[in-house]
C-alpha cells in the first residue's frame, strides 16, 4: 500500500535570516476576494468618519502679551522660535516646544507695526509707530548688559511694514514710500513710489529675490524691481488689499488678502485676471501666509477665524476657530509645514495643527501604511455624496454661520438681478463679466 | 548760449555802432540808463559780453519772487526762465503771453517725464517676466508630479559624522598637547615591535601545530622519510658550511655524495624507467643487441627479485582478469541496461508512444513526399490555410445547426403565445406585417396575420405581391420582431432575482475535482430568491423598461462626473481598481498608496532656489545691482526732495 504524504520545499516558507519578512502565502485570485468596490467604499467611509472624530487641531495658546498681537515672525533656522510684536510696543520671543516666552523687549512706543528676521537668524528688525527701525540681536543680552537694539534708525515718517531680503543684507520698509535699506547705512539706498499713498505692507519674493510686492491704501497692489529701482506694474482692485504673500515654490505666484472678504491669487505676469479667487471668509481678510510646500495657504480674518485654502481651490478645506479667539490679525505657517500660528486681538498666540486629524509623534511603519491607505481611499471616494458630506462638515460659530447664510442670499440676489438685466436688455449690450474679472478695476502699466 | 553765439554777437556789436535801439539780449542790461553816451554804452556792452563768456550761470540765475514749489507731476512752479523778451511778444494780445507758454512747456516736460517713466516700467516688467518665465517648465512639472518629497533638494545632514569631528579636533591645553605627542610620536616603532611580536607568535603557534600533527602520524615510513629529509637538509647545510670553511674537504665530500648517487642509480629501482632502459625498449624490435641487452637486464631482474615473483604473478593474473572484465563488462552491462530499460513498463510505454508518434509523423511525410518535393517552399504556408478553411467550415456547420434549432424554438413559443393571448398576437402580427418576412415558413403566424388582414384591409394583398417580394428580398436576413422579443426575454431573465448558492464543496464530505456536493446539501444551502416586484413593462409588449436604477443605491452614487474626467468610464475605472493590500501585492500596495506631498517632521522647508533646479541664478547680487545704478538712485532722491 502506498502512503501519500505531503511534501513541501522548505525554501518556499523558511526565511533565510531572522531579519527577513515572514513569508505569508497569499492567494490574490480575485474570485476569492469579492466585492472590492463596496468593501473599499465602506473603508473610505469609516476613514472619513474617523478623520472627523480625531480632528482636534488646537494645540496651545501662548499667553503673555498685554495688548493685541500685531505681527508674527518665524526664525529662519530654528523651528521652535517664534517672535511676536504687540500693539503696546512689546516684542516677545517664544519657545514653542516649551510653550514659554523666553524673552521680552519693550521695543517701541505705540504699535509694533512690523517684525522680520534676518535670513541667517542672528538678528531681527522691528518697525514701530515711533518712526524708528530697530535691529535686535536674536540672543538675549549677557549678564549685566542692558536690553538695547544693535542699530536704531530714526525716520521721517511712520513705517508700517518691514521685510528682509532672503539672501543679502538688505531690508525694505514701507510707509509713505517703499525704501530699500542697506543694513550698514542709515539712509535708504533706494526709494520707490508710484503716486502718494500709505503703503501697508511690503514683501520680498523668496525665489527671485529682487522682486517686491506692496499693497497700498488706495486699493492697489504694486510690484517693484529692486535692481532697476523701478516699479513694474500696478493693479487696482475693488477694495483695499491688506497684505500679500509670495508662493515659496512658484516664483511668479502671490496671494493678496483683501478687505472684500476674498483672497486673490495672481500670476504676476498677468495681473488683469487673478488665477483664483478664494472666497469663504465673511469679513475682511487681514493676513495670509503660504505653506512652505507652496500647495496651500492660511488666511486670518476679522471674522474671528482662520481658514486653510488649497492654492488651486476657491473654497477653503479647513476653518479653525475657538470661542475665545477674537479678530485674528496675523498668521504664520511654520517652516516644517506642520503647524500654524495665529496672533489675535485678545493678546494670545495660538498654535494649531495644519492637518487637523494628524497624529503627532513617531508613527510605526504599519500605522504609516494604514494612514497612507486611508488617505488614498478618502481621495478615491471623495466625490461620493455621503463621504463628501461628512468630509465637508464643520462646526461654525453662530455668528459666522448666520453671516454665511446672509451673504449667500445677498449674492444670489445680485446674481439674479444681473441675469435679469442681461435677459431684458438688448443681447450683447450688457457684458457678462466672470467672477475672476469682476474685482479687478484696472491694471496700470 | 554757446561761445560762438557770443562771439557773433560781439561782431555784430562792432558793426552796428550807430544803431541805438538794440534788442536787449540780457536781462541784466535792463537796468541800464539810456541817457548815457554811446561810447560808454558800447564799452559797457562789450564788458558784459565778455563777462557773459566766463560765467554763464549767473545769467540763468533766477530770482525768487514767491515760495518755490518743487517740480512734480501735480504742481507747476511759475519761476521765471531765461527767456528772451521780444517786442513782438509785448505787442501781441494778452492771451498768448510768454508766461503761459512757459507753463505749457513745463507741462509738456512733466508729461514727457511721465511717459518716459512708463516706458521704463514697461521695459523692466517685460524683462522681469522673461526672467520669471524660465521657471515655467519646472513649476509645471512640480504641479503635475505624482509625488513631491519636501525638502526638495538633498540636504546635508545637520550632525557631522564622527570621523569628521575627530579629524577636525585639535589639542589646545598643554596637557592635551602632551598626550597628543605621546600618542602620535611613538606610534611607528611601537607598531613595528608589535608586528614582530605577532609574527613570532604566529610562527610559534604554527610550529606547535605542525609538531602535534606529525606526532599523531603512526606510519613508520613517514617518520623515516622525515628523518631522512631532515638528514639530507642537514647534510646540505653542513656541506655548504664546509665549502666555505674547507674547500678540499668539501670536494671529498662531493665525491662521496657522487658515489652514493651512482650506487643508488645502479640499484634495481630504475630498471625500466631509466633513460637507458627506455631507449633499449624502443630499439629492441630492430636491434638485436639492444634486444639482448634488455633480455639480460630482465633476466637479471628476475634473478634478483625471485622471491617477489609470487606476489607479482598473482597481481598480474588479477590485472589480466580485470582487463578482460573491463573489456567485456561495458557491453554486457549496457545490454543488461537496455534490457532493463525495455522491461521498465514506464519507459516501455513512452518508448512505444514515441515510436508511434514517430511512425505517424513519418507516414504523412513519406506519403506527400513526391508532391512536396516540388513545392517544398510553399508547403508550410499552405498547411495553415487548409486548417483555417477547415475551421471556417466547422463554424459554418455549427452556425447552420444553431439556426435550425433557433427556428424550432421560435416556432414553439409562437404557438403557445397564440393559444395564450390573442390580442398580443394580433399586435405581433401587425408588427410582422410591417416587416413582411418569412410568411411561408410559419403557418401559425400566417394564419393570424391573414385573420388580422381580413378584419381591416383584405384588398391590397394581392396587388402588393411583387413589391412585397422585393422588400422581402431586401430584408431577408433580419427579423426585428424576433430580435426584440429575444432581447426583452433576456432583460426579464436578467432582472429576476437570482438564487443564492451557499454550497461550499468539501465541507462535511469529500471534495476534489469531479465531485459534486450531495443533493441534500444542495437543497439545504440553496436559498431561493423571493419573487421580485412585478415589472413595469409587464403589460407593455412593445416596450422594455429598464429596472436597473436602484433608489437606495442612488443615494450613494456619484451624480456628476468629477471635473478633470471627460467620460463616465474613466471614473468607473478609477473606482473599480482596488487599492488595498487585500487585492494587491505588497509592492503594488505601497506604490498605489503613496501620498502626493511628503513632509518630514522637524525639517525646515526652504523656498526653492534656482540652484536646486539647475538654473543659473544671476551671479551679481541684488545689492551690487542697485549700487551700480546711481542714475536711478539720484532720480529717486530728487523725487524724495
Structure keywords:
heterodimer, A: 445 residues, alpha+beta, Methylamine Dehydrogenase, Chain H, 5-stranded antiparallel β-sheet, 4-stranded antiparallel β-sheet, 5 helices, 37% strand, globular, B: 641 residues, mainly alpha, two-stranded parallel ribbon, 29 helices, disordered C terminus, repeat (chain A), WD40/YVTN_repeat-like_dom_sf (chain A), WD repeat (chain A), ribosome biogenesis (chain A), ubiquitin-like ligase-substrate adaptor activity (chain A)
List the helices and strands and how they pair.
The complex is a heterodimer of chains A (445) and B (641).
Chain A: H1 36-53, E1 58-63, E2 69-74, E3 81-86, E4 90-95, E5 100-106, E6 112-117, E7 123-128, E8 132-137, E9 151-154, E10 161-164, E11 170-174, E12 178-182, E13 188-192, E14 199-204, E15 211-216, E16 220-225, E17 230-237, E18 241-246, E19 253-258, E20 262-267, E21 276-279, E22 285-290, E23 296-301, E24 306-310, E25 318-320, E26 328-333, E27 339-344, E28 348-353, H2 365-380, H3 385-392, H4 398-424, H5 435-438, E29 440-444
Antiparallel strand pairs in A: 1-28, 2-3, 3-4, 4-5, 6-7, 7-8, 8-9, 10-11, 11-12, 12-13, 14-15, 15-16, 16-17, 17-29, 18-19, 19-20, 20-21, 22-23, 23-24, 24-25, 26-27, 27-28
Helix pairs in contact in A: 1-2, 1-3
Chain B: H1 3-15, H2 38-54, H3 57-60, H4 87-91, H5 98-133, H6 136-144, E1 148-149, H7 162-168, H8 174-185, H9 187-216, H10 220-245, H11 247-266, H12 275-283, H13 288-304, H14 309-343, H15 345-366, H16 369-374, H17 376-420, H18 422-435, H19 443-456, H20 460-463, H21 465-474, H22 480-495, E2 500-501, H23 519-525, E3 526-527, H24 551-554, H25 568-576, H26 586-592, E4 597-598, H27 610-613, H28 622-627, H29 630-640
Parallel strand pairs in B: 1-4
Antiparallel strand pairs in B: 2-3
Helix pairs in contact in B: 1-2, 10-11, 12-13, 18-19
Biased composition (Polar residues) (chain B): 615-632
Keywords (chain B): Nucleus, Phosphoprotein
Protein name (chain B): UTP14C small subunit processome component
